[in-house]
Amino acid sequence: MARKLAVQALYNWQLNPSPWQDLVQEFAADADMPKADREYFRSLIAGVGVDSDGLDMALTPWMDRKPTELDPVERAVLWIGTHELRAMPDVPYRVVISEAVRLARRFGSTDSHRFVNAVLDKAARDLRPNEH
Question: How do residues 77-104 score in pLDDT, each as one tens digit?
Answer without folding.
Answer: 999 999 999 999 999 999 999 999 999 9
